[in-house]
Amino acid sequence: MAIGLEDKKAIVAEVNETATSALSLVIADARGVTVDGMTALRKEARENQIVLRVVRNTLAKRAFTGTEYECVNDAIVGPSLFGFSMEDPGAAARLFKDFSKENDAFEVKALAVGGQMLGADQLDVLAKLPTRDQALSLLMSVMKAPATKLVQTINEVPGKLVRTLAAVRDQKEAA
């Protein structure tokens, strides 16, 4: 069924708006995946703030013009499923990686983050990025470490004195 010009403009505008606010993009080929599998994928994507779109290649290339995902135009060949991570840059990569383990027909084609296109072989790099909460906890532990070490060092001086006096007392009691 043919899509009218106004519908095409609406699709391009919607995908462009999504791409402008997305943190990363993962492109996959979902040919051969069952309807139940795609339904499960879409459900999990909604739970993880990932926008999944299937768009004609020409419309996708037009929608990516002027965004940081313009670099993936060469990878848009054949049927493509676009996964936009909206809150966590690695969310779509983790979802697609887990889904491809369960479905042999699902194949990741390319990914892009920060205006740079990465090959499908680098999916693990993006998937292993920490979530926002994990990154904040790592940052806080790094910031807290010097203060903790300082307090431990300051506390060690009187502790060492007390242990020395206790050893002298034990030695005199034994004598």
From TrEMBL:
Instruction: Supply the Pfam families for this chain.
Output: Ribosomal_L10
> Which CDD domains does the record match to this protein?
Ribosomal_L10
Which InterPro entries does the UniProt record give? Ribosomal_uL10 (IPR001790), Ribosomal_uL10-like_sf (IPR043141), Ribosomal_uL10_bac (IPR022973), Ribosomal_uL10_bac_type (IPR047865)
UniProt keywords (A-Z) are: Ribonucleoprotein, Ribosomal protein, RNA-binding, rRNA-binding
Q: Name one GO cellular component term.
A: ribonucleoprotein complex
Q: Name one GO molecular function term.
A: large ribosomal subunit rRNA binding
Record carries keyword ATP-binding: no
Q: Which residue stretches, if any, does this entry annotate as coiled coil? A: none
Q: Per the UniProt entry, what is one GO biological process?
A: translation
Record's keyword annotation contains Cytoplasm: no
Q: Which family does it belong to?
A: Belongs to the universal ribosomal protein uL10 family.
Q: What is this protein's function per UniProt?
A: Forms part of the ribosomal stalk, playing a central role in the interaction of the ribosome with GTP-bound translation factors.
* Annotated protein name in UniProt: Large ribosomal subunit protein uL10
State the encoding gene. rplJ
